[in-house]
Amino acid sequence: MRRISRLTRTAVGVASLALAASACGGTSSDSGDKGDKGLAIAYDVGGKGDQSFNDAAFRGLERAKKEFGYQTSDIEPTEGETDADKEQRLVSLAKQGYNPVIGIGYVYATAMKQAAAKYPKTTFGIVDDASIQTKNLADLVFAENEASYLVGVAAAKATKTKTVGFVGGVDTPLIHKFQAGYEQGVKDTDPGVKVVSQYLTQTAQEGGFSSPDKGKTAAEGQIEKKADVIYAAAGLSGQGVIEAAAKAKIWAIGVDSDQYKQEALAKYKDSILTSALKGVDSAVYALAKSVKDGKPLTGTQTFDLKSGGVGLSESNPKFATVPGAKEAVDKAKQGITDGTIKVKSE
Fold first, then answer.
1. In 3-state terms, what secondary structure has residue 29?
2. Is the pLDDT of residue 28 over 50?
3. What is the crossing angle of helices 144-158 and 173-189, to 10°?
4. Distance CA 178, CA 148 (A)
5. Under 8 Å CB-to-CB from 224, ≥6 apart: which residues?
6. pLDDT tens, position by position, 163-216
7. Burial (0-12, 13-18, 19+ Cβ within 10 Å), 203
8. 327 burial via Cβ count (<10 Å: 0-12, 13-18, 19+)
9. Which among 193, 329, 200 has a CA at the least distance from the CA of 274?
10. Coil, strand, or helix at residue 136?
């Protein structure tokens, strides 16, 4: 999931990428620089400040910067950009000497293939896509369905109306994984609980991952249908879901980052029961460390529950007060890791 609101996000022009690499967080130098500077990331829709997907990537970058003394760069997307724009962004970072260069989100797949071919000595990484296989690329993918199963278990234990909701940002196979795991977790825990599901848009260009207003409207509709726990896998749009849940005094479930701890969501945190955690930060850090160690990761790298790549947050003290929730979640964790629970992905 994905996605600082438009009022607080710095706009970046793709025509001035050398400047953008410096202006958008991180240190850059002239485009002709040689040698490895360190880690660079290019954000997905919504950019830094989404309190979710992109911010998790930024935490990984900050960790690598601190531990390895890296120079770093993080660049925002632009509205209506093309694959050629994305490719130019990745190429610019590689040309400046950043290594690795990571695209945060499956939208970079086409651009990543071209950029990796042009800079075979640079290690590239892409989050949430495994369609591109080349010797200098790491595909960083996650078992989102497993984390979603866990929050589905929690939702089934927390609901009092026997109706819970799911809001997906964009109708894609990736978000289907979140929905499938969530619905299975709910039904395995209490078959009598109804799940109301909705997608905000068909494409990312329509704002499904970057429109809190759309998330808020969808949540309000589900609340009218008696949903009293709503899980949003919608990036920045999920902030609207959380706002609507707080106003209605029901539970929201966050995604990717521990949204209970996000400063921008502090006024709503008491309504955030839990979050489905996705270790984008760990993946970004792991790739940076592998390059630093001279043994770059390549190929498909899967981060699942067993490896600690996904999980469920228990930061909200109120989580422990939901009857049977912690026990049921712990049992589900054991079942997933030992293989007795097979979580659906669609």
1. coil
2. no
3. 40
4. 5
5. none
6. 999 999 999 999 999 999 999 999 999 999 999 999 999 998 899 999 999 999
7. exposed
8. exposed
9. 329
10. coil
